[in-house]
Model the fold of this input.
Amino acid sequence: MQQLFTPTSLLVTGGAGFIGSNFIHHFLAGNPGCRVVNLDILTYAGNLQNLTAVQDNPDYRFVKGDICDGPLVERLLTEEKIDAVVHFAAESHVDRSITGPEIFVRTNVLGTQTLLEASRLHSERMPSFRYLQISTDEVYGSLGPEGFFTEETPLAANSPYSASKAGADLLVRAYHETFQFPTLNTRCSNNYGPYHFPEKLIPLLIHNILQKRSLPVYGDGLNVRDWLHVRDHAAAVERVLKCGTPGSVFNIGGNNEWKNIDIVNLVCDLMDERLENPAGTSRKLITFVKDRKGHDRRYAIDASKLKRELGWEPSYTFERGIAETIDWYLANQGWVQEVTSGAYREYYQAQYGA
Ligand code: NAD
Ligand code: TYD
Done:
């Protein structure tokens, strides 16, 4: 696999969130001397505590700001001589998109267009440039029991979240087709790992077991997701940035499908082992609740293009990844307390009445 591009100054958006912060740790460790500028507005999902280990790294700079602020983005691109943008910033939680879709359109669609336009104009002054859009398998809609999403699967988003991500992906495509702007687009399955905000399934389960709260399982619990360790996602993004041909789309997945209820049972059992509970203690907290509106039944990714063309494969087994993730949460209860205080506590009470 041939490296086509070597970034020297990277603008990462949403780098204080779950995947963005893991990517920054990964990238700074492997690319000393490359500048990394993190633009993040710090919503409820963005936490600078995710980045304390790199805050004094001379290659790293944090800027608190909005991707929808065109003049700010233009200034950063020029000031930092940015030659690559990796765009993670988004509103990312499906349940929130159902109760409040507007902010999803603003951040995910308008924010992407603002970045694309500023980057396109700036790139005309750069000898080489890449723009990488981080997207999701959810843009493809829902699968039945068979089959996989490929990069050719038509976009058929079903939630306001996935529709806003699909809108952004189409703008990325349009900027490549119309302006020959050097874009790349990745679509990844469900991530898990450290710094995952505890409104998403896996960290919510760990947190609620520790709090002895109920474990809400939507509908019949038989919806299927493909789970990938966030560090494998970070490595895939770096590979696509450096080696992907502009204009390409790459699916990223773990080849690791689980029914929700099986994940819930597994996390319960692993937590019981660590907490030295009698077997079956945590499973008693499982509560089947009303299904999510428009709940996609199954996601499954065919990531063979990324393996074939760029040689990427996941390195974590799920067994190792989930065990390490649980241990990380148990060792980082201060982080969990910090991110679940304030506005999130109010949201949680409104959602679950607890
Ligand atoms: P996250 O919600 O944990 O983090 C999002 C970050 O974006 C936060 O730090 C937030 O402060 C920042 N942000 C939001 N609005 C902003 C704005 N207007 N300006 C600047 N910053 C802003 O999300 P995540 O789970 O880390 O997801 C990152 C990206 O990966 C998203 O684009 C998401 O669609 C995509 N993705 C996520 C998953 C997953 O399983 N979590 C899977 C596939 C793709
Ligand atoms: P989530 O982590 O929100 O990711 P996504 O919706 O992007 O796939 O949810 C993963 C799956 O778990 C999804 O099918 C919804 C389900 N789920 C529950 O059953 N209970 C919960 O409390 C949450 C947050 C999710």
In short: The chain has twelve helices and twelve strands. The radius of gyration is 20 Å.
